[in-house]
Description:
The chain is of the alpha+beta class. It has helices at about 1-20, 195-200, 215, 230-235, 265-275, 330-335, 350-365, and strands at about 65, 70, 75-80, 90-95, 100-105, 115-125, 135-145, 150-155, 165, 170-180, 185-190, 220-225, 225-230, 240, 375, 380-385, 385-390, 400-405, 415, 420, 425-435, 445-450. The strands form seven sheets. The chain has a six-stranded antiparallel beta sheet, sandwiched between helices. The chain has a five-stranded mixed beta sheet with strand order 16-22-21-18-19, with no helix packed on it. α5 packs across α7. The termini are far apart. Mean pLDDT is about 90; it is low at about 1-30.
Amino acid sequence: MQRQRNRLKVANATLVMVLAAVASCSRSAPYGLDSRVPTKPYLQMPAAAGGKLPLLLSQTGVFSDTARRIPSVGLIPYDLNVAFWSDGADKSRWIAVPAGTIAFSPTAEWQFPPGTVFVKNFDLRVDAASPGTIRRLETRLLVCDSSGSLYGAVYKWRADDSEADLLPGSQSEDIAVKSADGEAHLQTWYYPSRQDCLACHNAKAGGVLGVKTAQMNRPFPYSSGVTDNQLRTWNHLGLFDPAVKEAQLPTFAMLAPAADASRTLEDRARSYLDANCAQCHRPGGTVANFDARYDTPLADQALIDGPVLIDQGIEHARVISSHDIWRSIAYIRVNTLGDVKMPPLARQTIDQAGVRLLHDWIDSLPGRAVLAPPVILPAGGTFAGPVDVSVSSSEPDADIRYTLDGSVPSASDLRYEKSIRLKGPAVLRARVFKQGFTRSITEQQVFIIGK
């Protein structure tokens, strides 16, 4: 109970630290923040990636009170329209900008002056029945160094929340999490290495991720009774070069949160792909054919019916196959924890809300109804003796065809009518057909009998 009370105190302190960060706010401040306080370049971090990193978070200059996570003077809180999925963690963010300005662009990535430091806390809710019960995980720093590049540092919080320690490399930790019914399970949290940070925060992706016009063009509550658009506030503080004209603000793009029903499914799905995929999937990025950036018009993104480089053995696979989740590789890779998962780094869980959003968008696209792949039971494996295998479809009166030699079933192959007795090794492949529907993709199971 005492630990839970401590956690509740920490949750309350989170609100206090945000208010403290903007102590200059007042109800009369038309832009939420009255003035800018330039921070010391790099705070207490080294000016170059090869410099000596502080071993403790309290030595970085980020927080004036580390245990309570109250940011130092000059740090500006901010939030994003659509956050990158981080295994369900809550995130709070600040930026420390030294004397100088941010090179603003309505569509391209912004450029930040050397010595800028980004701060991000990661907290995990560990009891669904008690939302205020959180586990502090880590605080990540991203530093714009003197060479124009970036480097990162990860500080892992101690169990008593008094301090966070610099991690020398990546680390995984199993954390007990309770569901609403009180049932506990373990969730693995991955703490990235400094090299991991650069896998996404690289020059091809523009370096800094998230802090760009379409993400920052959003309301933000700075204190009780004071809410303003972040772009308008930062512009008022003189952070942008060139300065933004007030009349331009309504014309800028704004990413659509998944739960914002006032925006179209297309807007929300493309916003999700921008936040979670665009750092790699863009011109000059990873090996792929599509451009996930929201600012790229849909017709130019090569998303819908766009060709794929790796089809996962699925016929007519596309990045997004219109009205067909089974042939949509982007959807499949977001909806798995297997080897082909996307994003591939530091993701241990599936973003169920994001998957549902992509599902609904794909399902809303024009096209014939598509048959789901059949279910083969039992699943393939090694069996001591003969095994009876059933094949079923969720579609009534569907025609199931199968083969036992690994070939792709056609409408003229064996029709499934009763369970199949396997007495020897077999590669069972099955597919569903029905008039008026697009045939299913092929389902496969491998059976080894007698070993």
